[in-house]
Amino acid sequence: ALPQKVTLVEVGPRDGLQNEKTPVSTEHKAALVAMLQAAGLTEIEVTSFVSPKWVPQMADNLAVMAAIERRADVRYSVLTPNLKGLEAALLALPHEVVVFAAASEAFSQKNINCSITESIERFAPVVQAAHAAGIKVRGALSCALGCPYQGEVSLDEVERVARLMRAIGVDHLGVADTIGVGTPRRVQQALERALRYFPLAEVSGHFHDTYGQALANIYASLEVGVHTFDASVAGLGGCPYAKGATGNVATEDVVFMLNGLGIDTGVDIDRLVDAGAFISGVLGRAPVSRVARALLAK
Ligand code: HMG
Ligand code: MG
């Protein structure tokens, strides 16, 4: 049987916006977060404490964290690639921080300017300091299904980096298909490798939809019991260091599928579509989400 309940981690404000060339104002970012939580999302990845030279769109990280109206029933997370990022993030009082490694050496170099081994060494004190502050640490494992630079990524390499992340105390692992090339059986195999080191409730799927496989991959993940997924409203997103990769699976599309399966997400799809229409309007384009387009055309 499939899980009866799914937790969605809304990554639109972070993954969704990080790739946008035109600066989105702090006010619009905070308004997006407000609409997402009003739609019933209880986990929101708000911003990144990364170098503003590398990702200019996230430069207003502290201002965004100060501008959001926090709700007691919502958990807010932020990306922290190193101690400098963590120290800045601590001022913003997130519930969770995210360190991000890759199962590909080439991608690790392009995205965070260091090898996989160096990244793990860099994350270890980040995890320690986050835990000392009572903050949970999620790890993202990029390129778990393929790499834009080196192509194939082996399951053994996925497992090796998952084990290293667990060894430094990372609490949760997000298996990420950065460029959206994964297909269902392969996704199940990658998740199974992660599940050797993390419990079912602490493994999630982060699927970009470049090749249109993301919903199928979520269904395949449900079959192995995984019940936490990242998704991005309106299908926004992409990684600046993964050229050509499109957005994450659209939250609207995931909620529509899960509603049809009778799986509870707590999300109101109409309010979610409003949030997607709002941010798409700010960006001057239509939502990528097929469900949003269909519902807006009604
Ligand atoms: P570096 O250049 O090697 O860092 O970058 P450095 O330690 O040598 O420092 C260089 C400069 O950056 C210094 O400033 C530091 O102070 C500053 P300067 O002295 O030149 O003025 N700096 C920082 N500033 C602000 N916040 C920080 C920070 N750290 C150093 N935290 C670094 C290394 C990791 C910082 C850089 O490569 C970086 O910021 N990378 C982030 C790239 C990124 O954000 N990618 C997108 C997010 S990951 C993603 O999208 C994938 C995911 O969605 C899953 C998936 O789909 O696969 C999660
Ligand atoms: Mg991503």
Automatic annotation (TrEMBL):
Residues 6-273 form the Pyruvate carboxyltransferase domain. GO terms for molecular function: lyase activity. It catalyses: (3S)-3-hydroxy-3-methylglutaryl-CoA = acetoacetate + acetyl-CoA. SUPFAM superfamilies: Aldolase. Pfam families: HMGL-like. Its EC number is 4.1.3.4. Keywords: Lyase, Metal-binding. Belongs to the HMG-CoA lyase family. This is hydroxymethylglutaryl-CoA lyase. It comes from Roseateles koreensis. The lineage of its organism: Bacteria, Pseudomonadati, Pseudomonadota, Betaproteobacteria, Burkholderiales.
